Every structure is written in C-alpha cells, then in structure tokens.
C-alpha cells in the first residue's frame, strides 16, 4: 500500500484536490481516510461548550484510533472509519467502511503535526494558499454545510482558526515532500500527483 498525505490550512482545497485525483485515477484502486472523521466525541458536553470547541488544535483529534486504522489497512484489513457531525459536534453512530487498496489518501489540516502519522506516509503534500482565499472558502463552506452564519465563521476564524494555523498547521509544512501553490485548484499539480499514483499502480 502506498500512502499519500494531503494537508494544508482550512479552506486550502484538500477535498477539491482529492476529487480531482479521483477523476484521473481508477477509483477502485484508491481508499480515502479523512482526519475530520477522527475528532474526539464531545457529546458529553453542553451544546454551548461544544460551539466553542477548537477544531484546529492537534489535541482535538483521536490520533491513536486514526493511526490504528491506517495500520490495519496496511495489514490488508477492513476498517470502520468513524463519522463526525459539525452540526452537533458529536461522533455519529454511522461508520464508513474503508477497504485496503493499493493507494490510500489521507487528508486533513493537522495530519502533518502527528509524527507517527507522518512516518506511515510514503508521500506528503502540503497545499499553500493565501489567507484571504482560504477565509472566503471557509465562510462559504461553513455557511452551506455546517449551519453557521458569516459572523460566526469570521469570529471563529480570528479566535482559533488563524492562530492555530500559525502555531501548528503552517509549521507542519516542513514535513511535506511537495508544496502545491494555489491548493486544490492547481490543475497541473493534480495531474502530476495522479501520474505518480498511476505509476505506482
């Protein structure tokens, strides 16, 4: 199994890049694991406290479970990846079955902050996108899919998203083998990565 990590700040286009790769490479050869599925469950907290959670700090992720699932996939085992709701800030009962395949794409804003996770990856890609573009994408995404107002998103951005980006996410790019300027919208990068995957297949 060849494992590719795709990281970058919130709104850098990680999902866009993954989807672009999937259009160019046989879908049945690739499995996907997303960091967002591994946020710690906060169902024991009152809703008001859940709304204040910092999703951009490494401590918000259940790394041991994510690492265990990756190692199971490398050992040719099926895994039931958890699912997480940003609306309720809780882990859901539903799981997503992930099958071991030749290529595993692992994506998330914080994945390069975990040393053990980095060591499992054969290729590490960091998406470099300027702050203004990322903020506009975050506002659009959070309003459409996470039930937040523009004001809520902007307040959260300056309170946690930007500080955590500067403290944890941006420094983690030193772990990358490849920097993609322009993020997920960089078509040339998507084609290059897809070619590298095709070569492995």
How would you characterize the overall build of this protein?
It is a single chain. The protein is of the alpha/beta class and 201 residues long. The protein has one domain (2-200): P-loop containing nucleotide triphosphate hydrolases (Rossmann fold), CATH 3.40.50.300. The chain has seven helices and seven strands. The strands form two sheets. The chain has a five-stranded parallel sheet, covered by helices on one side. A two-stranded antiparallel sheet has the order 3-4. Strand 3 and strand 4 form a beta hairpin.
CATH class: Alpha Beta
Overall average pLDDT: 91
Number of helices: 7
Total strands = 7
Structural category: alpha/beta
Here the CATH topology equals: Rossmann fold
Number of domains: 1
Q: Could you name the CATH homologous superfamily?
A: P-loop containing nucleotide triphosphate hydrolases
- Structural shape: globular
Radius of gyration: 16 Å
Blueprint of the fold:
Blueprint: E1 2-8, H1 14-24, E2 30-34, H2 47-50, H3 63-74, E3 79-85, E4 90-98, E5 103-107, H4 115-120, E6 123-128, H5 131-145, H6 150-169, E7 178-181, H7 187-200
Parallel strand pairs: 1-5, 1-6, 2-5, 6-7
Antiparallel strand pairs: 3-4
């Amino acid at each position: 199994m060849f494992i590719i990590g795709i990281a970058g700040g919130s709104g850098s286009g990680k999902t866009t890049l993954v989807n672009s790769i999937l259009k160019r490479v046989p879908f049945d050869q690739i499995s996907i694991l997303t960091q967002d599925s591994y946020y710690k469950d906060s169902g024991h907290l009152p809703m008001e406290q859940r709304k204040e959670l910092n999703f951009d700090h490494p401590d918000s992720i259940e790394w041991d479970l994510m690492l265990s699932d990756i190692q199971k996939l490398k050992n040719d085992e099926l895994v039931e990846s958890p699912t997480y709701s940003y609306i309720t800030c809780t882990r859901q009962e539903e799981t997503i079955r992930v099958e071991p395949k030749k290529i595993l794409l692992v994506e998330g804003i914080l994945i390069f902050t975990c040393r053990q996770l980095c060591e499992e990856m054969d290729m590490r890609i960091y998406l470099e996108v300027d702050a203004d573009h990322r903020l506009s994408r975050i506002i659009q995404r959070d309003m459409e899919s996470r039930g937040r107002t523009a004001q809520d998103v902007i307040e959260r951005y300056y309170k946690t998203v930007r500080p955590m980006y500067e403290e944890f996410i941006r420094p983690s790019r030193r772990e990358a083998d490849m920097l993609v300027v322009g993020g997920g919208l960089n078509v040339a990068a998507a084609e290059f990565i897809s070619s590298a995957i095709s070569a492995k297949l």
